[in-house]
């Protein structure tokens, strides 16, 4: 009898946390999906980055509110940290001013994912969150997140 091979592992490799700022429908969906795939999630509801957003090595940081008062400081700190993924929810045009501000300050934004997520085409909070978590997982495995079919 041939042993069946499974296409999955019983438990995912432990990865960093997913830190999400701030609390809104997309953030709550990111928390639900990321938790389902085995990630520890912290949603910080304070628009100013709050006391709980202390980035650790291997964390993923997702800014779900580009209009948060402390968005530049949150991104500045996350991009300077040992986070493996830093992203912001915003269209390229909406984020342009904030990105330009960071570049003018000398911040390296080359690793900033904006807009956050893979291009799945979804518009609902859960669909957007799925694209963000998929991008976090792809990044953590050094993958592009493209289709698997040849």
TrEMBL record:
It comes from the Bacteria. Residues 19-136 form the XdhC Rossmann domain. Transmembrane segments: none annotated. This is XdhC Rossmann domain-containing protein. It comes from Nocardioides glacieisoli. The lineage of its organism: Bacteria, Bacillati, Actinomycetota, Actinomycetes, Propionibacteriales.
């Amino acid at each position: 009898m041939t042993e069946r091979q499974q296409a999955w592992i019983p438990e995912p490799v432990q990865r960093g946390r997913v830190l999400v700022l701030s609390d809104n429908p997309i953030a709550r969906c990111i928390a639900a999906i990321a938790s389902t795939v085995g990630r520890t999630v912290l949603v910080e509801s304070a628009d100013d980055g709050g006391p709980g957003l202390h980035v650790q090595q291997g964390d993923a940081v997702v800014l779900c509110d580009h209009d948060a008062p402390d968005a530049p400081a949150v991104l500045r700190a996350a991009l300077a940290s040992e986070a493996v993924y830093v992203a912001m929810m915003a269209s390229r045009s909406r984020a342009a001013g904030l990105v330009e501000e960071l570049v003018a300050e000398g911040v390296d934004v080359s690793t900033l994912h904006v807009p956050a997520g893979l291009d799945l085409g979804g518009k609902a909070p859960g669909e957007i969150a799925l694209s963000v978590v998929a991008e976090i997982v792809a990044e953590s495995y050094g993958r592009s997140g493209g289709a698997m079919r040849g």
